[in-house]
Amino acid sequence: ESLPSSLTTDAIRVTSEALELDDFLEARKAPWSPLAIIIVSSYGVGQAPLGAWKFREMCDKILESAEDHSSDFKGLKFAMLGLGDSKFTTFFLNPTAIDSALSKAGAERVGSLGKADASGTGDKVQLNVIQDWSRDIIPDLKRVIEQDLGPLATKTADEEGKDAWELKGEEMKVVKENTLKYCRLIYENWQDEVVTPGGKFDTQKTIMMVVPIILAILLALFFKSS
Q: Per DSSP, what are the bridge partners of residue 81?
């Protein structure tokens, strides 16, 4: 509850919802909005944790492809905190793979890539790193909202009658369609229909933020003009 309230501005009001990354893909059909937060761990030998297997598989498809994917997620910005244990040789492999794939696909990371090490000592104790990252990322997120997204809510319509927020929504629809393109490759019996109702980026000025925590929980933050 404190995150949405700390990001709310005079122009945009923020609310939130928690989801798993794979549910974001399969149940919600990837309703991306311009800003996302991802907090995710590694499991086993650098694999994705429960709830993020398919999302990781999508990221691997992007990383392994020799094609140019630099415009697939263009317009999407994300913050990321990774969890792991440096006593394993595959430390931070899953968060690194997701970060690299999103960046290769044209998304832009906001702030520093957090590295919370279960074997950390001193000021690098995992809980301290999580708390520090959670505090320090707020100004970066607010900067995106106030400087990049806030002005979109007040800009007038263009010659075709579309306001800036609507145009941003169309950009996010492209990101969604490109995500669904990957889903059709990684899911055996993929269905484009939404299984459960969920948030979406629309003319009501909503933004989703993705936050998978340990078991890949996705926190969706929805923004509405005040």
A: 39, 114
